[in-house]
Design goal:
Radius of gyration: 13 Å
Number of strands: 2
Number of domains: 1
Shape: globular
Structural class: mainly alpha
Strand order of the largest sheet: 1-2
Oligomer: single chain
Helix content: 25-40%
Largest sheet: 2 strands, parallel
Length: 60
């Protein structure tokens, strides 16, 4: 977790967050702290190309 936060300058992206959590973030004014996206693909699209992992993951 520490590595992820350092890599993203302390920012996290939420993917697939439920409606209640999304509403709570909006009501508390916290949506900018934890941006919520409908899918993992949408969340990853927010990252710069160099930081973006392969999605969906490659199968072994």
């Amino acid at each position: 977790m520490r590595w992820l936060l350092e890599r993203r300058d302390g920012r996290l992206l939420l993917a697939g967050a439920g409606r209640r959590l999304t509403d709570l973030l909006a009501q508390t004014g916290s949506a900018h702290l934890l941006p919520s996206h409908r899918t993992v693909g949408h969340a990853l699209a927010e990252l710069p190309q160099a930081q973006r992992p392969v999605w969906p993951p490659l199968q072994d």
